[in-house]
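As a warm-up, study this chain.
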Amino acid sequence: MMKILLIVDAQNDFMPGGALEVPSGDQIIPVINRIQDRFSLVVATQDWHPVNHISFASNHDGRKPFDTIEWHGMEQILWPDHCVINTKGAEFHPDLKMDRVEAIFRKGMDREIDSYSGFYDNGHIKNTGMAGYLHDRNARELFFSGLAADFCVYYSILDALNEGFNATLIEDATRPVDENNFKKILDELAARGCRIIMSHQIKSTHTDVERLL
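Now compare it with the structure written out below.
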């Protein structure tokens, strides 16, 4: 069965020193590079925000990063400006191997709504086309890596499960913003049917992933 590696938002602004850094986020890059050739297909998502995006605290008078507001009936965390279209912060980490990435799905382009998942915006109003692309490729087994584990990776996995894919999280190929929250998320994902593995458990494209006992 075809195995697909999904690289979520491995971009400069989420790396140490970036506008919205994930602690030790750069440590996932060698892991992702090492495992890419074990998959039949590799795809990536890319946060790609207009400068006036509603998720940026700078676009709300009197607000600061990590404040929470209500926007169009949904809770919205306000973030530092990050992954702005055509900026260095929006680029993929320079050491990330991209030669096997067949498709890149951009998200967060609509200024009026945030988009954590690589499949849908946060209101599930618009989709990125990734689900259709993967279904057309007869993909069933999706393996998740990237940043951040407790936001964009987490919501991408939830949408993948809802779309009928089998989901596996590669734990050492991702990093969370909040370690304590991530521990709870791992339990939730496992309960929903997502497998949690380490990168060394992935064999070749022609063998199954070793299952945890």
